[in-house]
Design a protein that fits this description.
The complex is a heterodimer of chains A (148) and B (229). Chain A is an all-alpha fold. Chain A has one domain. Chain A contains eight helices and no strands. Chain A has helices spanning 3-17, 23-51, 57-78, 81-88, 90-93, 96-110, 115-122, 127-147. In chain B, helix 2 (53-71) packs across helix 3 (92-99) and helix 4 (114-127) packs across helix 7 (211-220). The longest helix of chain B has 19 residues, at 53-71. In chain B, strand 5, helix 3 and strand 6 form a beta-alpha-beta unit. Helix content of chain B is 30%, strand content 18%. Mean pLDDT of chain B is 86; it is low at 212-229. Chain B has a single domain (2-223), classed as Peroxisomal Thiolase, Chain A, domain 1 (3-Layer(aba) Sandwich), CATH 3.40.47.40. Chain B is α/β, with parallel strands linked by helices and 229 residues long. Classes of the chains: A mainly alpha (148), B alpha/beta (229). Chain A binds chain B through residues 6-8, 10-11, 14, 18-21, 26, 76-77, 79, 81-86, 88-89, 92-93, 98, 101-102, 104-106, 108-110, 112, 125-126, and chain B through 51-52, 54, 147, 151-162, 195-197, 202, 205, 209.
Protein backbone atom coordinates (compact mmCIF):
# COMPACT_ATOMS: atom_id res chain seq x y z
CA UNK A 1 0.00 0.00 0.00
CA UNK A 2 1.58 3.30 -1.00
CA UNK A 3 1.50 6.43 1.11
CA UNK A 4 -1.24 8.18 -0.82
CA UNK A 5 -3.57 5.25 -0.48
CA UNK A 6 -2.76 4.93 3.20
CA UNK A 7 -3.51 8.63 3.75
CA UNK A 8 -6.79 8.33 1.87
CA UNK A 9 -7.83 5.34 3.94
CA UNK A 10 -6.92 7.10 7.19
CA UNK A 11 -8.78 10.25 6.17
CA UNK A 12 -11.86 8.21 5.34
CA UNK A 13 -11.58 6.47 8.71
CA UNK A 14 -11.28 9.82 10.53
CA UNK A 15 -14.19 11.23 8.55
CA UNK A 16 -16.34 8.29 9.65
CA UNK A 17 -15.36 8.65 13.31
CA UNK A 18 -15.45 12.38 14.04
CA UNK A 19 -18.47 13.75 15.87
CA UNK A 20 -20.58 15.93 13.61
CA UNK A 21 -22.26 19.20 14.52
CA UNK A 22 -25.98 18.54 14.66
CA UNK A 23 -27.54 20.54 11.85
CA UNK A 24 -31.00 21.29 13.22
CA UNK A 25 -30.15 22.89 16.61
CA UNK A 26 -27.37 25.02 15.15
CA UNK A 27 -29.53 26.15 12.22
CA UNK A 28 -32.41 26.91 14.56
CA UNK A 29 -30.23 28.94 16.95
CA UNK A 30 -28.56 30.88 14.18
CA UNK A 31 -31.97 31.56 12.62
CA UNK A 32 -33.60 33.07 15.68
CA UNK A 33 -30.55 34.99 16.92
CA UNK A 34 -29.89 36.35 13.43
CA UNK A 35 -33.57 37.28 13.15
CA UNK A 36 -33.45 38.97 16.53
CA UNK A 37 -30.46 41.10 15.46
CA UNK A 38 -32.33 42.11 12.30
CA UNK A 39 -35.40 42.90 14.38
CA UNK A 40 -33.27 45.07 16.63
CA UNK A 41 -31.94 46.87 13.56
CA UNK A 42 -35.44 47.49 12.27
CA UNK A 43 -36.44 48.71 15.74
CA UNK A 44 -33.58 51.20 15.83
CA UNK A 45 -34.46 52.36 12.32
CA UNK A 46 -38.14 52.86 13.17
CA UNK A 47 -37.24 54.52 16.45
CA UNK A 48 -34.95 57.00 14.69
CA UNK A 49 -37.63 57.85 12.17
CA UNK A 50 -40.17 58.31 14.97
CA UNK A 51 -37.88 60.64 16.95
CA UNK A 52 -36.69 62.62 13.90
CA UNK A 53 -39.63 62.72 11.48
CA UNK A 54 -37.74 64.95 9.05
CA UNK A 55 -34.87 62.50 8.62
CA UNK A 56 -34.48 60.93 5.19
CA UNK A 57 -34.95 57.17 5.22
CA UNK A 58 -31.47 56.53 3.80
CA UNK A 59 -29.85 58.67 6.50
CA UNK A 60 -31.71 56.63 9.12
CA UNK A 61 -30.27 53.42 7.60
CA UNK A 62 -26.78 54.81 8.03
CA UNK A 63 -27.38 55.70 11.66
CA UNK A 64 -28.92 52.27 12.29
CA UNK A 65 -25.78 50.59 10.98
CA UNK A 66 -23.61 52.83 13.15
CA UNK A 67 -25.62 51.93 16.25
CA UNK A 68 -25.46 48.18 15.47
CA UNK A 69 -21.72 48.33 14.79
CA UNK A 70 -21.16 50.20 18.03
CA UNK A 71 -23.26 47.73 20.02
CA UNK A 72 -21.42 44.69 18.63
CA UNK A 73 -18.05 46.31 19.19
CA UNK A 74 -19.03 47.25 22.74
CA UNK A 75 -20.27 43.73 23.50
CA UNK A 76 -17.02 42.32 22.08
CA UNK A 77 -15.08 44.53 24.45
CA UNK A 78 -17.17 43.27 27.36
CA UNK A 79 -16.45 39.68 26.30
CA UNK A 80 -20.08 38.88 25.58
CA UNK A 81 -20.19 38.74 21.79
CA UNK A 82 -17.98 35.65 21.46
CA UNK A 83 -20.42 33.78 23.69
CA UNK A 84 -23.33 34.87 21.50
CA UNK A 85 -21.29 33.78 18.48
CA UNK A 86 -20.47 30.39 19.97
CA UNK A 87 -24.17 29.84 20.50
CA UNK A 88 -25.60 31.34 17.36
CA UNK A 89 -22.89 30.68 14.76
CA UNK A 90 -23.84 32.17 11.40
CA UNK A 91 -26.75 34.02 13.00
CA UNK A 92 -24.36 36.49 14.63
CA UNK A 93 -21.62 36.37 11.97
CA UNK A 94 -23.64 37.26 8.88
CA UNK A 95 -25.24 40.54 10.07
CA UNK A 96 -23.01 43.63 10.20
CA UNK A 97 -22.52 42.99 13.93
CA UNK A 98 -20.35 39.97 13.02
CA UNK A 99 -18.20 42.17 10.81
CA UNK A 100 -17.81 44.63 13.67
CA UNK A 101 -16.82 41.78 15.99
CA UNK A 102 -14.25 40.48 13.49
CA UNK A 103 -12.51 43.87 13.50
CA UNK A 104 -12.77 44.60 17.21
CA UNK A 105 -11.55 41.20 18.40
CA UNK A 106 -8.10 41.26 16.72
CA UNK A 107 -7.81 44.93 17.72
CA UNK A 108 -8.29 43.89 21.35
CA UNK A 109 -5.87 40.98 21.08
CA UNK A 110 -3.08 42.86 19.35
CA UNK A 111 -3.42 46.10 21.29
CA UNK A 112 -0.64 44.81 23.55
CA UNK A 113 1.82 44.99 20.63
CA UNK A 114 1.38 48.73 20.19
CA UNK A 115 -1.08 51.05 18.48
CA UNK A 116 0.51 51.19 15.01
CA UNK A 117 2.33 47.86 14.64
CA UNK A 118 -0.11 45.87 16.72
CA UNK A 119 -3.61 47.25 16.58
CA UNK A 120 -3.57 49.00 13.20
CA UNK A 121 -1.72 46.20 11.40
CA UNK A 122 -3.74 43.29 12.73
CA UNK A 123 -7.15 44.95 12.92
CA UNK A 124 -8.24 43.67 9.51
CA UNK A 125 -6.67 40.22 9.74
CA UNK A 126 -10.10 38.57 9.74
CA UNK A 127 -12.20 41.23 7.99
CA UNK A 128 -9.54 41.97 5.36
CA UNK A 129 -10.34 39.02 3.06
CA UNK A 130 -14.05 39.91 3.23
CA UNK A 131 -13.29 43.47 2.10
CA UNK A 132 -10.99 42.25 -0.71
CA UNK A 133 -13.60 39.80 -1.99
CA UNK A 134 -16.27 42.50 -1.68
CA UNK A 135 -14.28 45.02 -3.73
CA UNK A 136 -13.25 42.48 -6.41
CA UNK A 137 -16.78 41.17 -6.83
CA UNK A 138 -18.14 44.74 -7.02
CA UNK A 139 -15.65 45.45 -9.83
CA UNK A 140 -16.68 42.27 -11.66
CA UNK A 141 -20.37 43.00 -11.26
CA UNK A 142 -19.73 46.58 -12.41
CA UNK A 143 -17.96 45.32 -15.54
CA UNK A 144 -20.81 42.93 -16.34
CA UNK A 145 -23.28 45.75 -15.81
CA UNK A 146 -21.26 47.97 -18.19
CA UNK A 147 -21.30 45.32 -20.92
CA UNK A 148 -24.99 44.54 -20.59
CA UNK B 1 24.71 4.97 27.40
CA UNK B 2 24.18 1.91 25.27
CA UNK B 3 22.09 1.71 22.17
CA UNK B 4 19.30 -0.78 22.18
CA UNK B 5 20.16 -2.85 19.13
CA UNK B 6 16.64 -4.17 18.54
CA UNK B 7 15.33 -0.69 17.84
CA UNK B 8 17.84 1.89 16.66
CA UNK B 9 15.43 4.72 17.67
CA UNK B 10 15.54 3.71 21.31
CA UNK B 11 18.36 4.49 23.68
CA UNK B 12 18.91 2.87 27.04
CA UNK B 13 20.34 4.85 29.91
CA UNK B 14 22.89 2.81 31.84
CA UNK B 15 23.23 5.21 34.77
CA UNK B 16 19.50 5.80 35.11
CA UNK B 17 19.06 9.57 35.49
CA UNK B 18 16.54 10.42 38.19
CA UNK B 19 13.85 13.04 38.30
CA UNK B 20 14.86 14.61 41.60
CA UNK B 21 12.49 17.56 41.49
CA UNK B 22 9.38 18.58 39.63
CA UNK B 23 6.79 21.30 39.57
CA UNK B 24 3.58 21.88 37.63
CA UNK B 25 1.61 25.11 37.37
CA UNK B 26 -1.71 25.29 35.55
CA UNK B 27 -4.47 27.71 34.66
CA UNK B 28 -7.87 27.90 36.39
CA UNK B 29 -9.61 25.71 33.78
CA UNK B 30 -7.03 22.94 34.14
CA UNK B 31 -7.14 23.29 37.92
CA UNK B 32 -10.89 22.69 37.85
CA UNK B 33 -10.38 19.44 35.92
CA UNK B 34 -10.02 15.87 37.17
CA UNK B 35 -6.31 16.22 37.88
CA UNK B 36 -6.65 19.59 39.62
CA UNK B 37 -5.50 18.38 43.04
CA UNK B 38 -2.25 16.91 41.63
CA UNK B 39 -0.84 20.21 40.37
CA UNK B 40 1.54 22.15 42.56
CA UNK B 41 -0.02 25.50 41.79
CA UNK B 42 -3.29 26.56 40.18
CA UNK B 43 -3.33 30.15 38.89
CA UNK B 44 -6.30 32.26 39.92
CA UNK B 45 -6.37 34.07 36.59
CA UNK B 46 -5.01 33.34 33.11
CA UNK B 47 -3.06 36.60 33.29
CA UNK B 48 -1.12 35.53 36.42
CA UNK B 49 -0.83 39.17 37.53
CA UNK B 50 0.77 40.28 34.26
CA UNK B 51 -0.46 42.70 31.62
CA UNK B 52 -0.42 40.29 28.66
CA UNK B 53 -0.87 36.54 28.25
CA UNK B 54 2.62 36.27 26.76
CA UNK B 55 4.14 37.79 29.87
CA UNK B 56 2.02 35.44 31.96
CA UNK B 57 3.39 32.49 30.00
CA UNK B 58 6.95 33.64 30.64
CA UNK B 59 6.23 34.05 34.33
CA UNK B 60 4.81 30.52 34.41
CA UNK B 61 8.10 29.05 33.13
CA UNK B 62 10.06 31.02 35.73
CA UNK B 63 7.65 29.93 38.44
CA UNK B 64 7.87 26.25 37.41
CA UNK B 65 11.65 26.35 37.21
CA UNK B 66 12.05 27.92 40.64
CA UNK B 67 9.51 25.46 42.05
CA UNK B 68 11.32 22.44 40.62
CA UNK B 69 14.70 23.68 41.85
CA UNK B 70 13.19 24.12 45.33
CA UNK B 71 11.61 20.68 45.14
CA UNK B 72 15.01 19.17 44.31
CA UNK B 73 16.48 21.12 47.25
CA UNK B 74 19.03 22.82 45.03
CA UNK B 75 19.85 26.43 44.23
CA UNK B 76 19.69 27.92 40.73
CA UNK B 77 23.51 27.82 40.72
CA UNK B 78 23.44 24.02 40.89
CA UNK B 79 21.48 23.69 37.64
CA UNK B 80 24.02 23.21 34.89
CA UNK B 81 21.66 23.32 31.89
CA UNK B 82 18.14 24.41 31.12
CA UNK B 83 16.20 22.68 28.33
CA UNK B 84 12.93 24.44 27.66
CA UNK B 85 10.42 25.10 24.94
CA UNK B 86 6.96 26.44 24.18
CA UNK B 87 4.59 26.96 21.27
CA UNK B 88 5.24 30.59 20.42
CA UNK B 89 7.42 32.05 17.66
CA UNK B 90 11.11 31.75 18.42
CA UNK B 91 10.14 29.87 21.60
CA UNK B 92 10.06 33.31 23.11
CA UNK B 93 8.47 32.53 26.47
CA UNK B 94 11.20 30.06 27.38
CA UNK B 95 13.97 32.23 25.97
CA UNK B 96 12.85 35.28 27.95
CA UNK B 97 12.43 33.16 31.06
CA UNK B 98 15.97 31.81 30.60
CA UNK B 99 17.20 35.41 30.47
CA UNK B 100 16.38 35.88 34.14
CA UNK B 101 18.41 32.84 35.20
CA UNK B 102 22.16 32.55 35.13
CA UNK B 103 22.31 29.15 33.46
CA UNK B 104 23.12 27.76 30.01
CA UNK B 105 19.99 27.29 27.95
CA UNK B 106 18.93 25.16 25.00
CA UNK B 107 15.64 26.08 23.37
CA UNK B 108 13.58 23.15 22.15
CA UNK B 109 10.59 22.98 19.88
CA UNK B 110 8.58 19.80 19.69
CA UNK B 111 5.06 21.23 19.98
CA UNK B 112 3.12 18.67 22.04
CA UNK B 113 6.18 16.49 22.55
CA UNK B 114 8.44 19.21 23.99
CA UNK B 115 8.26 17.83 27.54
CA UNK B 116 9.15 14.31 26.43
CA UNK B 117 11.80 15.69 24.10
CA UNK B 118 13.42 17.73 26.86
CA UNK B 119 13.40 14.73 29.20
CA UNK B 120 14.92 12.44 26.57
CA UNK B 121 17.67 14.92 25.66
CA UNK B 122 18.22 15.85 29.32
CA UNK B 123 18.48 12.18 30.30
CA UNK B 124 21.01 11.58 27.50
CA UNK B 125 23.16 14.50 28.64
CA UNK B 126 23.00 13.55 32.32
CA UNK B 127 23.56 9.86 31.62
CA UNK B 128 26.59 10.66 29.51
CA UNK B 129 28.04 12.64 32.39
CA UNK B 130 28.19 15.90 30.48
CA UNK B 131 25.92 17.84 32.83
CA UNK B 132 25.19 17.31 36.50
CA UNK B 133 21.70 18.73 37.03
CA UNK B 134 19.56 19.44 33.99
CA UNK B 135 16.25 21.29 34.20
CA UNK B 136 13.70 20.16 31.58
CA UNK B 137 10.72 22.43 31.09
CA UNK B 138 7.83 23.20 28.80
CA UNK B 139 4.99 25.71 28.76
CA UNK B 140 1.88 26.52 26.76
CA UNK B 141 -0.90 29.03 27.22
CA UNK B 142 -4.34 28.79 25.64
CA UNK B 143 -4.70 32.51 25.02
CA UNK B 144 -1.29 33.00 23.39
CA UNK B 145 -1.56 29.86 21.25
CA UNK B 146 -5.08 30.77 20.16
CA UNK B 147 -3.95 34.21 19.09
CA UNK B 148 -0.92 32.91 17.23
CA UNK B 149 -2.39 29.89 15.47
CA UNK B 150 -6.13 30.39 15.29
CA UNK B 151 -8.49 33.29 15.85
CA UNK B 152 -8.65 36.23 18.25
CA UNK B 153 -10.10 35.30 21.63
CA UNK B 154 -13.16 37.50 21.38
CA UNK B 155 -14.12 36.47 17.86
CA UNK B 156 -17.63 35.06 17.80
CA UNK B 157 -16.88 31.90 15.85
CA UNK B 158 -17.98 28.36 16.63
CA UNK B 159 -15.63 25.58 17.61
CA UNK B 160 -16.25 22.26 15.88
CA UNK B 161 -16.62 19.21 18.16
CA UNK B 162 -13.13 17.99 17.19
CA UNK B 163 -11.29 21.20 18.08
CA UNK B 164 -8.69 21.01 20.83
CA UNK B 165 -8.03 23.30 23.74
CA UNK B 166 -4.37 24.20 24.28
CA UNK B 167 -3.50 23.69 27.93
CA UNK B 168 -2.51 26.66 30.06
CA UNK B 169 0.28 24.98 31.95
CA UNK B 170 3.98 24.87 32.65
CA UNK B 171 6.02 22.02 34.03
CA UNK B 172 9.63 21.52 35.02
CA UNK B 173 11.64 18.49 36.07
CA UNK B 174 15.21 18.36 37.35
CA UNK B 175 17.27 15.40 36.18
CA UNK B 176 20.34 14.21 38.04
CA UNK B 177 22.30 11.05 38.74
CA UNK B 178 22.45 11.88 42.45
CA UNK B 179 19.38 12.05 44.62
CA UNK B 180 16.14 10.16 44.88
CA UNK B 181 13.25 9.94 42.50
CA UNK B 182 11.78 8.03 39.60
CA UNK B 183 14.42 7.18 37.01
CA UNK B 184 14.41 7.23 33.24
CA UNK B 185 15.64 3.95 31.79
CA UNK B 186 14.94 4.27 28.08
CA UNK B 187 13.82 6.83 25.55
CA UNK B 188 12.58 6.45 21.99
CA UNK B 189 13.11 9.29 19.56
CA UNK B 190 10.29 9.58 17.07
CA UNK B 191 9.95 10.30 13.39
CA UNK B 192 7.58 12.83 11.85
CA UNK B 193 4.50 11.02 10.62
CA UNK B 194 2.01 12.74 8.35
CA UNK B 195 -1.16 11.02 7.23
CA UNK B 196 -2.40 14.04 5.35
CA UNK B 197 -5.01 15.43 7.74
CA UNK B 198 -5.72 18.96 6.53
CA UNK B 199 -8.36 20.03 9.05
CA UNK B 200 -6.74 22.51 11.47
CA UNK B 201 -9.55 21.87 13.91
CA UNK B 202 -8.81 18.18 14.16
CA UNK B 203 -5.36 18.01 15.69
CA UNK B 204 -6.18 14.74 17.42
CA UNK B 205 -6.50 12.90 14.11
CA UNK B 206 -3.34 14.55 12.81
CA UNK B 207 -1.34 13.53 15.88
CA UNK B 208 -2.75 10.05 16.46
CA UNK B 209 -0.48 8.35 13.87
CA UNK B 210 2.54 10.06 15.38
CA UNK B 211 2.68 7.36 18.03
CA UNK B 212 6.45 7.33 17.57
CA UNK B 213 6.74 10.88 18.80
CA UNK B 214 4.02 11.19 21.40
CA UNK B 215 4.69 7.57 22.32
CA UNK B 216 7.95 8.83 23.73
CA UNK B 217 6.06 10.17 26.71
CA UNK B 218 4.28 6.87 27.11
CA UNK B 219 7.54 4.98 26.76
CA UNK B 220 9.18 6.81 29.60
CA UNK B 221 6.33 6.89 32.07
CA UNK B 222 5.50 3.17 32.36
CA UNK B 223 9.19 2.40 32.67
CA UNK B 224 9.79 4.71 35.56
CA UNK B 225 10.80 2.48 38.40
CA UNK B 226 9.35 4.44 41.23
CA UNK B 227 11.63 4.69 44.22
CA UNK B 228 10.75 6.46 47.43
CA UNK B 229 10.36 10.14 46.78
Amino acid sequence: MNDLEKNKKYNAYVEAKIPKTRAFPSLFNSFWVGGLICLLGQGINDGLLAIFPNMAEQTAWGYTLIVLIFLASFLTGLGVYDRIGRFAGGGSIVPITGFSNSITSPALDFHSEGIIYGLCVKMFSIAGPVIVVGIISSILVGLIYLII
Amino acid sequence: MTKNLKNPQTVEFKNRPKIIGNYAIVGPKEGAGNFGEYFDYVMKSDLFGEKTYEKAERKMVEHALVGAIDCAMLTPRDVSLLLAGDLLNQIISSSYAARSFDMPYLGLFGACSTMAESLAIGASLVDGGYFKNVACSTVSHFSTAERQFRFPLELGNQRPPTSQWTATAAGCSILSLQGKGPCITKATFGKVTDFGIKDVNNMGAAMAPAIDIIGLCGMILPRISNTKI
